[in-house]
Amino acid sequence: MAQRRGRITSQRLVLSGVAVAYVFGGITSLITITSDNRLLAGQVLSWTLGSLARASWGDLTLPALICVAGIFYLTVHARSLNALLMGDETAAGLGVDVTQLRRHLFVATSLLTGVLVAVSGSIGFVGLVIPHIVRLFVGGDHRRVLPVSLLTGGIF
Questions:
Q1: Which of 35, 67, 124, 151 is the most buried (most CB within 10 A)?
Q2: What is the distance between the terminal CA atoms of the chain, rounded to a whole angstrom?
Q3: Cβ distance 149 to 133 under 8 Å?
Q4: Shortest CA distance to 84 belongs to which of 73, 69, 97?
Q5: How far apart are alpha carbons 123 and 111 in whole angstroms?
Q6: What is the pLDDT of residues 54-75, one digit of tens each?
Q7: Looking at the whole model, is its pTM more than 0.85?
């Protein structure tokens, strides 16, 4: 199999993310286990497992605002997201600036994920599976997937 230099495939990206997560997870575990401060170690362990138990309503103001802005952004770009499902060439043929849209989506999803995980811990990543399950039931149209995922994720 010929290897392309400089191109990041989705498989490489996923495997790199898993590798980085395991390295940092190991470092976090080492620090937690060797810590003399047991209270702090317990708090770190609680955060890494993920929980909303320590979150207060005041802590949720910024994440709620960012969620509303992110959902609005994604809903406005639902047609472009649908075009991306058909491939980059087709989306570009339909007038979507694929490179620019991907950059904006990367920033938006990174911001949403970062803010939510900062509040709830790694339990926020459990929600990544919800849109895939929803897509099985409502199809691939982002105009339906986004609101149903929002509702289903909240219930979950």
A1: 124
A2: 42
A3: no
A4: 97
A5: 16
A6: 667 887 888 889 889 988 998 8
A7: no
Q: What was the pLDDT predicted at 69?
A: 92
- Cβ(140)–Cβ(82) under 8 Å? yes
Q: Is the separation of the CB atoms in 134 and 152 below 8 Å?
A: yes
The residue count for the chain: 156
Q: How far apart are CA 70 and CA 53, in angstroms?
A: 24
Query: Cα separation of 57 and 80, whole Å?
Result: 35
Closest CA to 115 of 44, 61, 74, 54: 61
Percentages helix, strand, coil for the chain (3-state, rounded to 5) are: 80, 0, 20
Q: Could you tell me which residues come within 8 angstroms of residue 51 by beta carbon, excluding any fewer than 6 positions away?
A: 120, 121, 123
For 39, the 3-state DSSP assignment is helix
Q: What residue type is assigned to position 22 of the chain?
A: Y
**CA distances in angstroms from 142 to 11, 34, 52, 95, listed in the order given:** 24, 46, 28, 18
Domain boundaries, the chain: 1-49, 56-155
